[in-house]
Amino acid sequence: MMFRCTIVCGRIARMTKKLILCFSAALGLALMADELHEPMEKVGKANGALRKGAGAGDMKVVSENAAILAEVFPTTIAAWEKRKMADAVQGTKDATAAALAVKKAADANDADGLRAALGTLGGTCKSCHTAHREDLGDKKYKIK
Fold first, then answer.
1. According to the model, what pLDDT value does residue 139 have?
2. How crowded is the C-beta side of 90, counted as CA atoms within 13 Å?
3. How far is CA 100 from CA 16, 58, 92, 106, in A?
4. CATH placement of domain 35-143
5. Domains of the chain: which residue ranges?
């Protein structure tokens, strides 16, 4: 009887350990996704406002939202580094530089410079989204 209890208790302990490891791994992935969720929500809102402002010729709105992008983009670098996605790290740095170029053009009321900077910004976002974002529908995404 005692021998049987030892075997059963040992199995339960191993199963518990495996469950804890699986839960920890899942929690780690969820937290990593959350690391990107909040800043990317901010990026999406600022980018939408920036594009709307650019369409209306409102350079103040463009400048303000470009500043938000330039501030938020770098906060995602650690998450990309943890995932060992060097291209996403570089894309984030490029997007930050492009956001600063958008702000500079908007502050100078330079329509041609703004158009070029917006193209660069949009291109950096698109290339990263194409490489690393999977559309789940209903405006929900997951990292590939």
1. 81
2. 5
3. 50, 17, 12, 10
4. 1.20.120.10
5. 35-143
